[in-house]
Design brief:
The protein is of the alpha/beta class and 572 residues long. The chain has two domains: 115 residues, no CATH class; 389 residues, Vaccinia Virus protein VP39 (Rossmann fold), CATH 3.40.50. It has 22 helices and 15 strands. The strands form three sheets. Strands 5, 6, 7, 8, 9, 10, 11, 14 and 15 form a nine-stranded mixed sheet that branches. A four-stranded antiparallel sheet has the order 2-3-1-4. The relative contact order is 0.12. The protein binds S-adenosylmethionine. The site of S-adenosylmethionine has 23 residues, from helix 17. Its main location: nucleus.
């Protein structure tokens, strides 16, 4: 402390005057701008406009979506409606140019009378991702095979190439948008820091502060904390700034103190804010083509002709379509009722791709309702083998059964047991999927009540059940399976207690090892956390985040069973 108020203030202004220039320099560096460029406000966007090679003759989905956005912005009147219709027609033409005329696969199994119009469980509603299969080396040959070689389930030939090219363009655009929003957050922060007066009053009495005030204080404090050494005011410690930030986050975004602490343990203040902001935003609506009944291109054509604007999901998925806009309820189209697709978030594709089901296998989905993953597993197995679809909740089983009927799945046996007890009934399975019950901290945009309803005892309870379920999943699996011996664990939680800690426990108590999930994107799992060390192989697990992958928070880990039995010696 020390010095008069005026002197202290002059000192702060001197300090933050320098801070402003430094912040601007950092932001410019992040945006890769020269000093000269930085003077032009539109440069970051100008710089990102990529030149497109081999411009297609037909309008691409990306161009279409840009036009559509522009049209919507301009006006909402008749003229705009007409232009939207015209764009839809153009897009239809585009798809027609790629593919053979629409033909519906003959379907003797569709159960259109007993359908249940139900969205998939929030745990499995997710979005689009970044990552490029073409550029990635897969270590899991099985997954690679499924993703690339299973021609009969996939659209073929030049159509796929065109779709993938468009998909790549969309991905590029999305990545650039993400960079822009990060830059925007930083530049807002820089704008704020210019106001040295504001800095001087950061710690003033809070009671009268509006949400907007607190939001700008959050941005300012994040900026200070990201370079605390040169930006601190000399009066307050880092932990005082942190505590100010956490209080504001609780106030503005509605989180309880427990979750805020958990997130700050995982992320830097800047990344924490990005995660929190992204968690409030809805993710894109995605549907999965039911390849037991139709092909993606046929489904796309059928939906487009109904005024549903769809594009292929990222190029790692052969089945996914992103729905941009729809003139009809997407859960009530004739195609939905006929079981041609499942409304299913993109992240819920991932555990199934990691599981890599093979035809004629015996597979257990231990916590299956409402069946987004079960029905995908059956589709990849082409209705061969057996899928045991289990869930302990009898009410939720109803939607599982309805989805199984609607999608024409014929290889499942549905059961309603506590998964922890299944081992006395089901053994020697080739693969087991455990999409575990969890806190839902990755799907806050679907269920904001998570912000206040989770506390430490709650997470500890989850963690205990998850560990018990995972040991049971391993025990149900056959280490000597000729084709599998695989267990996949997933949650829609971002918390380490429900993810890495569960896998680490299993590694200590069963003869299993972590193997690559074969998913070409996602962040490696933690191997250290809050002073705890996890098995180094946990880096093969994959984490997905809304602020990085534009999808709900998710965790996936693939295990290979080595032999039966209980591992008693934790150091083994
Ligand atoms: C994340 S959801 C599963 C979503 C599902 N895999 C899908 O993709 O549609 C978790 C499920 O676990 C079930 N569950 C909770 N405790 C269980 C237990 N002890 N044994 C089996 N299932 C359980 C819940 O009823 C819930 O349906």
């Amino acid at each position: 402390m020390g010095g008069t108020g005026r002197a202290r203030r002059a000192k702060r202004i001197r300090k933050f005057g320098t801070g402003v220039q430094e912040s601007v320099r950092i932001v410019n560096k992040k945006l890769k701008l020269s000093e000269e460029d930085a003077l032009q406000p539109d440069v970051p966007f100008r710089k990102r406009q990529k030149k497109k090679k081999n411009k297609p003759t037909f309008e691409t989905p990306r161009e279409y979506n840009k036009k559509l956005k522009q049209a919507k912005k301009d006006n909402a009147d008749q003229q705009n409606l007409a232009s939207t219709k015209e764009l839809s027609r153009d897009k239809e033409k585009y798809y027609e140019s790629l593919e053979s005329p629409f033909e519906v696969t003959s379907d003797t199994n569709s159960d259109t009378e007993n359908f249940v119009v139900e969205q998939e469980d929030s745990a499995s509603q997710e979005s689009s991702l970044s990552g490029n299969i073409g550029e990635t080396s897969f270590s899991d040959e099985e997954t690679k095979k499924n993703l690339f070689e299973d021609g009969s389930m996939e659209d073929s030939g030049t159509e796929e190439l065109d779709i993938e090219r468009e998909n790549r363009l969309l991905e590029d655009e999305k990545r650039l948008e993400e960079e822009d929003s990060k830059a925007e957050f930083l530049s807002n922060t820089v704008d704020n820091i210019v106001d040295a007066e504001q800095v001087a009053t950061l710690f003033d009495n809070d009671i009268q502060r509006s949400i907007a005030d607190r939001k700008s204080r959050i941005a300012l404090v994040v900026q200070i904390l990201s370079d605390f050494k040169s930006r601190k005011d000399g009066l307050h410690s880092r932990s005082e700034y942190l505590s100010l930030l956490k209080t504001d986050i609780g106030y503005v975004y509605g989180y309880n103190a427990f979750l805020i602490e958990e997130f700050f343990d995982m992320f830097s203040p800047l990344e924490c804010m990005e995660f929190i902001e992204a968690s409030d935003k809805p993710r894109p609506l995605v549907i999965r083509t039911n390849t037991l009944k139709t092909k993606r291109r046929q489904l796309a054509q059928a939906l487009i002709s109904r005024g549903v604007n769809v594009d292929p999901l990222e190029n790692w998925s052969k089945e996914g379509l992103v729905v941009y806009e729809s003139r009809v309820p997407i859960g009530a189209t004739p195609e939905y009722l006929a079981g041609y697709y499942m409304i299913q978030a993109s992240s819920s594709f991932i555990p199934v791709l990691a599981l890599s089901p093979q035809e004629k296998e015996k597979i257990l989905d231990m916590a299956a309702s409402p069946g987004g993953k079960t029905t995908f597993v059956s589709a990849l197995m082409r209705n061969t083998g057996i899928v045991y679809a289990n869930d302990s909740n009898a009410d939720r089983i109803k939607s599982l059964v309805a989805n199984i009927h609607r999608l024409g799945v014929e290889n499942t046996i549905v059961s309603c047991y506590d998964g922890r007890k299944l081992v006395s009934i089901l053994r020697d399975l080739d693969r087991v999927l455990l999409d575990a019950p969890c806190s839902g901290t990755g799907i806050i945009s679907h269920d904001p009540s998570v912000k206040t309803s989770r506390d430490r005892p709650d997470i500890q309870r989850n963690s205990v059940i998850q560990k018990q379920l995972l040991l049971a999943a391993v025990d149900c699996c056959n280490a000597h399976s000729a084709t599998g011996g695989i267990i996949v664990y997933s949650t829609c939680s971002v918390l380490v207690e429900e993810n890495e800690a569960v896998i680490d426990y299993c590694l200590k108590h069963r003869f299993v090892k972590v193997v690559s999930s074969g998913i070409p994107f996602g962040i490696p799992g933690f191997t250290k956390y809050r002073g705890k060390q996890f098995h180094p192989s946990l880096q093969e697990a994959r984490r997905f985040f809304p602020h990085i992958h534009n999808m709900d928070g998710f965790f996936v880990c693939k295990l290979k069973k080595l032999k039966s039995g209980v591992r008693y010696n934790a150091t083994q």
